[in-house]
Design brief:
Elements: E1 2-6, H1 11-23, E2 27-31, H2 40-46, E3 53-55, E4 61-63, H3 65-75, H4 82-107
Parallel strand pairs: 1-2
Antiparallel strand pairs: 1-3, 3-4
Amino acid sequence: MLELFQTEWCPASRRVRQRLTELGVDYVIRQVPADKRKRSALVAATGVDAVPVLVLEDGTPLAGEERILAHLSERYLESRGAWMHRARAEKSRRRYLEEECECSRLATR
C-alpha cells in the first residue's frame, strides 16, 4: 500500500491527497511534525525531511508534489467519479474561504 508522508497545513500535501482520491487509490497517511528537527521517522523512511513524500509499494520514495503527480499520472487512470471529487473539493474550498472572510469581518467589528 502507498504511504503519504504529509502535513494538513501543506498545500502540496493537500493537492496530492486530492489527486489520490480522484484516482481512487488507497493509501496510508503518515503525519509529519511541523518542526523539521523532529522528522527523524520521515528521514529514516525516505531520506528527506520535506513533505509531501509518497512511498511506493516497493519502498521507493517520491519526494515533492511534481514528482508524485507525474508518477500518479503515468501509473493510474482517472476514475469515473474524479470530476465529482473535484467539484466537491472546490465547493468546500469556496465555503471555507467565505467562512474565513466572515470571521475576519466579525473580528474587525
